Amino acid sequence: MALIMKYIESINRYMDTHSDSRTKDWPMMSSPFPTLAVCLTYVYLVKVLGPRLMENRKPLHLQNLLVMYNALQVVFSAWLFYECLMGGWWGSYSFRCQPVDYSDSATSRRMVHACWWYYFSKFTEFMDTIFFVLRKKTSQVTTLHVIHHGCMPMSVWFGVKFTPGGHSTFFGLLNTFVHIVMYTYYMFSAMGPQYQKYLWWKKYLTTLQMVQFILIMVHAFQLLFIDCNYPKAFVWWIGMHAVMFFFLFNEFYKAAYKNRLMKQNAALANGHAKPNGYCKSINAHDDLFLPQTTTTEATAAAASATAKANGNGNAALSNGHANGLKNGYKTLANGDAVTSLTNGSAHKSNGVLLANGFGNGNGYATQLLDDVAQELKHRKTPK
C-alpha cells in the first residue's frame, strides 16, 4: 500500500511541475483520480446497479424532465460553442498550427475557462444514460454509449490540466456544435409524437458525428508532418480517440442500417407478393389440397388445417398471402375438394388457381397447382 501511495505522489508531483498553473487549483484538477473514480462509478451504476434496482420496477415516465434537460443541454452547448469561438477560433487561431497561449491575457483566460466548462459538461452528459436506465431503455445502454460517455471526462481532464487552449480545443469546438444538433433532436423527440414530422433529419445524426471525428483526425494528425510548438503526445491522444470513436460509431451505423433493412425485408415478406410468386414450401400441395371424405374426417381435417394456419410453415406461401389452411374446404363442381387460401384469395382463371390474383411469371405456383389438379382427377369423394 505504501508503494502505491508513493507512485501516486510521484505522479501528482510530476503533474504539478508540468501542468498549467492556471488550472491546478480548480475543482477536480489537482489529480486525475477523482475523475477516474467518477467515471468508474458511472459505468458500475448504469451497467450493474441501475438495471438491478429497476428490474422489478415499472419504468419511470420522465417526459417533462427530459424536455427540460435536453433544452438546458442545447443552451449549455451553444454557450460553450460561442466561448470557443470567442476564445480564439473566431479569427485568432490557426487551423494549421496553434500553440497553447499560456499568458494571462483576457482571450487566453476565456479559452481556459471554456475548456474547464467543457470538461464539466462531460459529467452532465452522464444523465443521458441514467435516464435510459430509469426508463428501462436498456437497449440504448450500448457498449458504444457507455465507452463514449465513460472515457470523455478522463480524456478532457488531461487537456485542461496540461494544454487548456491551442490546437486541441478544435475537438471541443466541433463537439459542442454536434451536441447542439443532437440535443435539439432529443428535445423534440421527448416532446411527443406530434413533433416527429420535424425530425426527418434523425438519420443524419450518426453521419454528422462520424464526419466530426474525421475532421478531428485530420486536424490532429497534420501536426505529425509539420513543425508546430505543440506537444506531440496530445496529437496522438486526440487523434487516436477520434479514430476509436469513428470506428465505434461506424459499427453502430452499420448495425442500425442492417436492422432497418431486416425490418423492411420482414415487412415485405409478411405482406407483399414477390414478383415471381413462387411457392416456397416443397410440401405445399400435400398441405393445401386434400380429398374430402366423411363428415368425421372432414372435421378432423378442418381442425388440423386450423392448427397449420396458426403456425405450420409447410403450408405457408413465402409472400405471406397464404398462411396455411384457414377457411376449410371448398367443393368444386366435379366433386373434388380443395382447400381455399387464406383470406379467401383463391381465384380460378382458365383452370389455374391464382393466389390473391397474382400470376406466376416463372410458372412455379401454376405448375404446382396443375400437378395437384391432375392428382385430384383420380380421387373420388365418398358419398
From TrEMBL:
It comes from the Eukaryota. Its EC number is 2.3.1.199. It holds the Pfam family ELO. It catalyses: a very-long-chain acyl-CoA + malonyl-CoA + H(+) = a very-long-chain 3-oxoacyl-CoA + CO2 + CoA. One of its GO terms (biological process) is fatty acid elongation, saturated fatty acid. InterPro entries: ELO_fam. It is found in: Membrane. It is a multi-pass membrane protein. This is Elongation of very long chain fatty acids protein.
